[in-house]
């Protein structure tokens, strides 16, 4: 083979390799790999079930397994096992819970059961340089004919700004129970965590005054500590700050970090979960623990949420 032909062949092989590498690193490749899973997940919108029966069986189980525990350490450690046990007993997957994967954790969503019941929104409170799950959600919702408006807030703009701006609107803010300045554990440039003084914006002010939002379809809350100040969990309670201001919130993925700088965290967690159980407003599903405790909440009291995501009218 002539030298020129060999060089041309080598060049073509190099170009092909570069193109394949670019495709392998692209979102198109991920979409292609996950296309089969999309088909499985999208079938969740056709599931039919008795909403009240699922919630009642789950609530009876979680009450029996958790409400008697008074020790915060034991409650923290037992939560995941009780959650998984009760999810199975009530067969909560039949309401259409779909799992999305970030690089180191999972998020859970329920797709709208009614075609083009929009608009749709998703709020990422704490981005952590990772929007894989948001991208998956956007892709699956588009296949269902639904567009989603994304809002992301994280006090560290390094990487997060450029990353989240690819899918939605980024806010360089820390969101918490009250506006003010407090110490917070934040991800720094090397990927570790450091305590820094941060300006926190009141979560009610963020939604009501900055964004003028009264319907929250999905909120993913991943915070390191200071955000869970006095009164934060009030937004989830009956007649709490969101209720008083006419804000409906449907689905929440929330992660509570265990950290030595917040020794009261386990007590807060126990009080929060117990109150949710007693109020019988939110279902608490998909409990998971790897150092931190994670859960997925769905609002069974809001008629807006029931109509949109569980196709329940009444």
From TrEMBL:
The keyword Transport does not apply. The keyword Manganese does not apply. Residues 1-20 form the signal peptide. It comes from Caenorhabditis remanei (Caenorhabditis vulgaris). Residues 75-278 form the Methyltransferase FkbM domain. Pfam families: Methyltransf_21 (PF05050). This is Methyltransferase FkbM domain-containing protein. PANTHER family: METHYLTRANSFERASE FKBM DOMAIN-CONTAINING PROTEIN, UNCHARACTERIZED DUF13 C.ELEGANS. InterPro entries: FkbM_mtfrase. Keywords: Signal.
């Amino acid at each position: 083979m002539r030298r020129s032909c060999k060089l041309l062949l080598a060049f073509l092989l190099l170009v092909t390799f570069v193109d394949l590498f670019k495709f392998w690193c692209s979102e198109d490749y991920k979409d292609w790999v996950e296309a089969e899973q999309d088909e499985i997940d999208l079938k969740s919108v056709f599931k039919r079930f008795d909403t009240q029966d699922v919630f009642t069986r789950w609530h009876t189980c979680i009450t029996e397994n958790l409400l008697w525990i008074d020790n915060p350490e034991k409650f923290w450690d037992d939560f995941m096992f009780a959650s998984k046990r009760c999810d199975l007993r009530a067969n909560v997957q039949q309401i259409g819970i779909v799992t999305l994967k970030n690089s180191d954790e999972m998020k859970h969503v329920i797709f709208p059961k009614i075609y083009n019941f929009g608009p749709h929104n998703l709020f990422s409170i704490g981005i952590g340089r990772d929007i894989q799950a948001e991208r998956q959600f956007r892709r699956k919702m588009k296949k269902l004919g639904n567009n989603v408006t994304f809002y992301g807030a994280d006090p560290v703009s390094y990487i997060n700004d450029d990353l989240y701006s690819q899918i939605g609107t980024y806010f360089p803010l820390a969101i918490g129970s009250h506006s003010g300045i407090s110490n917070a554990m934040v991800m720094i440039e090397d990927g570790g965590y450091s305590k820094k003084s941060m300006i926190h914006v009141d979560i009610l002010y963020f939604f009501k005054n900055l964004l003028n939002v009264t319907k929250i379809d999905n909120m993913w809350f991943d915070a390191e500590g200071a955000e869970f100040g006095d009164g934060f969990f009030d937004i989830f309670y009956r007649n709490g700050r969101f209720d008083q201001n006419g804000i409906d919130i449907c689905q929440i993925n929330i992660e509570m970090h265990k950290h030595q700088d917040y020794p009261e965290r386990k007590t807060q967690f126990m009080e929060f979960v117990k109150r949710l159980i007693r109020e019988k407003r939110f279902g608490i599903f998909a409990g998971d623990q790897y150092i931190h405790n994670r859960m997925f909440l769905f609002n069974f009291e809001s008629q807006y949420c029931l109509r949109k995501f569980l196709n329940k009218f009444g």
